[in-house]
Fold Carbohydrate sulfotransferase.
Amino acid sequence: MKGVRVHDLNVAKNGPNHYVRDHYPRPSQKDLQKVLNENYTSLLIIRDPFERLLSAYKDKIESTSNDYFNPFICNISKSKKDAFGNCRATFPDFVDFIISEQEEGRQPNEHWATYDEFCSPCQVRFDYVLKFEHLDVEEPFFISQSALISYFLTYELMRQSLTEIQYQDQLYLF
């Protein structure tokens, strides 16, 4: 990321991902089509919107392991705190927060933004669209259909780095 200082990423108001996206905006439909016409294989992995929303809540809001989201949690929970003084937000609090952010015209966080707000599913024709809920079947098929990928990567090798717990909890990775 030429020209981006680490300090700028660390102090970015909306976090490093938003900072980078502001400086490297999403490609236009024309740019995407040009790249896809250059014999690339395009892939989009989608997820049930409600599963995605619940996963975002569990991974980013309910979990206390991510310091970046603590201000979100306090804002969402309206500073309700647990016995240890940590802000805690319920799932209904989270849904109300998302609705109010939408009503106020604020850009949603990428983890709970809809696909059309975060990526460009309607602007390009993807070669493959996989459903997250069926990755155990669809991912090996995709790998087998992609000669270059299958030369370097197998489904087993890809999953080898995941622990048993991570594999069972993979719903919370996206």
